[in-house]
Structure formats: C-alpha cells, structure tokens
Amino acid sequence: MKRLKYGIVGAGFVGPHHIEAVRRLGFVEIAALADANSDLARRKAAQLFVPRAYGSYEELIADPAIDVVDIATPTWLHHRIALAAIAARKHVIVDKPMATTAAQAREMLEAAHEASVVNAITFNYRYFPVVQQARVMIHRGDVGQVRFVHGHYMQDWLLYETDFSWRLEPDKAGPACVAGDAGAHWFDLAQHLTGLRVESVLADLTTAIKIRKRPVAEWREAFAENSGGATENFTVMVDDLSSVLLRFNNGAVGNFFGCQLCAGHKNDLRIEVNGSRHSLAWEQERPGELWIGRRGASNETFLKDPALLDPSVRHYAALPGGHNEAWPDAFRNLMRNVLTFIAEGRDPASADGELFPTFATGYRVAAIVDALVRSQRQGSHWVEVDYR
Ligand code: SOE
Fold first, then answer.
1. Ligand 1 midpoint to CA 240 (Å)
2. What is the pLDDT of residue 226?
3. What CATH number is associated with residue 100?
4. Would residue 222 be called left, alpha or beta, if left means φ above 0 and alpha means ψ between -120 and 50 degrees?
C-alpha cells in the first residue's frame, strides 16, 4: 500500500480534528497545511506539528508531493478550492456541507468524475460502530419495512444574540443555516442507515433571533466564546430553528428538527427508525448504545462490543466492550475508509458512497437542502428534491 502525503486547507474548528484522525492511521504523512495567510498558516502548522505551512491554498495544491487535499475551510471556499485541487489531479476530501448550493456541488462532482480523482465528504456520524450495526440490522430486515424516520440535531452555541458565526451569513454558508449544516449530517445519516432516498420535503425554516451582534474586526470560529470586542447589528436571513417533513422513495415518511439555540443541547443528534417489526434509535451523546424497540418482547440496549457487532462491521470498533469510542474514533474510521481506498490505488469510479460518502452523496444532500429552501420560499409547501 502506498504511503500517502496529505495536505489540509483550513485549520479552524474542524481542521485539527481531521488532522488528528488522519495522523492515527499510520500510513498517511500529514505533509502540509494552508491557511488564509502565511503568519496564520505558520502558527497553526507549529501548533499541530505539520512540517510545511502555506499562506494560500494555491501553493499547497502546487506542491507536487501532495497526493490528497483535505478542504476544511468555511463552506463558501469549498467549490473554488476543490476545483483547483481536482484540476491539479489531487484526490479531494471536503468537509460537510459540500458547497453553498446544489449547483456548485454538481460542478464539483462533475469535475471530480472527469478528472478521475477520489472524492469524499466528511459525514462522520455514519462511522460509529453501533450506527453501522443499526445499518446492518435494517438492511437484513430485522426492523421490517421502514415506515418512519425521525429525529433531531440540537445545539446551543447560537443561543444568545451576541453569538455569531459565518454560518449565519448566506454568502459564506448558503441560504440555510441549521438545515444546511446540522441538517446535512442528519439527512445523510437517515439515507445511509435506511438505504432510502428522500424524494420530497416540506420545510418551516424559522429565525428566532432576527438581529444579532456581528463582531466588527474579528473572525469567530464555531463554538468560540464571544470575546467582548466591538460588534454591529446583523439582520439574520437564515434559519436558526428548522422543522422539516420528509417523504422517502419507499413511501416511508420522516420528520426532522434542527436548532442551534436550544439551551443545554450540545451535540444532540438523534435518529429513530420505526419499521413494521422493530424500532431502532441512536443518540450521538450516548455513542455506544443502540436502542432496539419491540412490541411483543422487552426492549433492549445493544452496547458497543466488537464481539457482539455483526462481523461485517466489527472493524469499526477498535476497543473491547466497555471501552468507550466516540466522535474522534468515528472520524478516524471515515478517514481510514477514504485514505485506504486511495492508497490501494482503487478506481475512483468504483466508490459507491457506502464505504465513504462521495461527492455524489454530498450533492444529493445539497439537493435536499436546496429543496428545503424552495419549500420555505413557496410558503412551506411540499416540493420534490431535484436530483438532476
Ligand atoms: C454542526 O453545527 C457541527 O459543526 C457539526 O458539523 C460537527 O460535526 C459538530 O462537531 C459540531 O457541530
């Protein structure tokens, strides 16, 4: 297997976690980091023990040693950096959501196919061991016919009017905030778990805090505290509280709500699938537990334990039962799937979106978000997702 050289663009909130996950693999060298300017890049590279620092993504992409470019910048930069990396025939990993619009995601997908480079999106919640177990159970029929898929993704980091993030700016994050960011993870999870496709949606995307205080001179990372510096009033045009109804291609229905202003909810992603036989539910903050709901027998909590996981997904657990594995480990599992595929020189066209989410997966999720925004603009009517 080839030893890969990996370069990352963007070392804000999530970039360092990408680096940590990749570093744990052993067969990938973290070779370079790029950020918005040379000073910042040098500082971040020193903090994260990355040998080369570049003050622009163009320089990192021009580095002939780099095999894979990971794009962990704010969303509005994904499209341009991915197209540049693809043009240089680098394999690309892009943080979620893939792009600010479905049209941009489509262009990225077409460019990656044309250039025949491996392409991946970091929908990391799929790769918790018990989530993979749930997927096996649904696909082998334990749950019966899936009828209802519901859940939420709730956080509280935008609770106060003084909380601010670039995710609230449509030119930087796209026309949906919570539905496009947290929602993207949930829609991917719902489709990956069940194997179903969302066909139509009805959205009520609301804005509880209509005027926020935007920092005048400072760039605020996700989850960063308000520094108390000067602010200006900012009119919020995107959702901070979103309710969504869904219809799937097998006739099942779904229900999702997302928010980033519900006090006490930190990274509260929950999904439940109700079928004609059993129900399954998983909560991200109880990462090693899978609830199995039954009618004629006791309910059960399946606990993460490699000895109990289906053999096909056992490798997603690195530790014995009782030894907790969670968010960083799921990220490692995702990165291992993508980077092993690249190191083995496998054909990018054979990536089916199951081993790791591809640009095709990211595009389909972007198409759902696009449909949510259309639904909202049409007065919260049902609209079909346009997967052209
Ligand atoms: C959503 O707001 C988000 O940024 C997720 O995408 C991350 O997975 C989570 O760690 C923090 O919240």
1. 14
2. 75
3. 3.40.50.720
4. beta
Q: Are residues 233 and 217 in the same domain?
A: yes
User: Does 285 share its domain with 136?
Assistant: yes
Work out which ligand 1 atom sits closest to the CA atom of 17. Answer: 10
Residues 61 and 86 in one domain: yes
Question: 223 CA to middle of ligand 1, Å?
Answer: 9
pLDDT digits (tens, 9 = 90+) for 198-249: 999 999 999 999 999 999 877 777 777 777 788 999 999 999 999 999 999 9
- pLDDT tens-digit series, residues 26-52: 999 999 999 999 999 999 999 999 999
Query: Three-state SS for 142?
Result: coil
What is the CB < 6 Å shell around ligand 1? 155, 181-182, 185, 222, 267
Residue span of the structural domain in which 67 resides: 4-125+333-358
**Nearest C-alpha to atom 5 of ligand 1 is from which residue?**
182
- For the chain, the domain total comes to 2
Query: What's the CA-to-centroid distance between 182 and ligand 1, angstroms?
Result: 6
pLDDT at 78: 98
Regarding whether 302 and 240 lie in a shared domain, the answer is: yes
Residue to substitute in 172, 221, 267 for testing ligand 1 pocket (most ligand atoms within 8 angstroms of CB): 267
Pair (16, 79) in one structural domain = yes
Tokens of 215: 């920092």
Contacts of 273 (CB under 8 A, 6+ apart): 134, 138, 143, 146, 148, 149, 193, 194, 279, 280, 281
Asked if residue 312 and residue 165 are part of one domain, the reply reads yes
Give the integer Cα–Cα distance in Å for 342 and 337: 9
Residue 130 has pLDDT above 80, yes or no: yes
For ligand 1, the distance from its centroid to the CA atom of residue 230, given in whole angstroms, is 26
Amino acid occupying residue 291: W
Closest CA to 34 of 1, 86, 69, 4: 69
**Whole-model pTM?**
0.96
What ligand 1 atom has the least distance to the C-alpha of 184? 6
Domain shared by 304 and 198, yes or no:
yes
Residue 388 lies in a domain: no
Average pLDDT on 11-26 reads 97
CA distance 11 to 24: 17
Question: Quick check: is 80 in a domain?
Answer: yes
Query: Are 79 and 204 members of one domain?
Result: no
Tell the residue nearest (CA) to atom 2 of ligand 1.
182
Residue 386, in any domain of the structure = no
Nearest CA to ligand 1 atom 9: 267
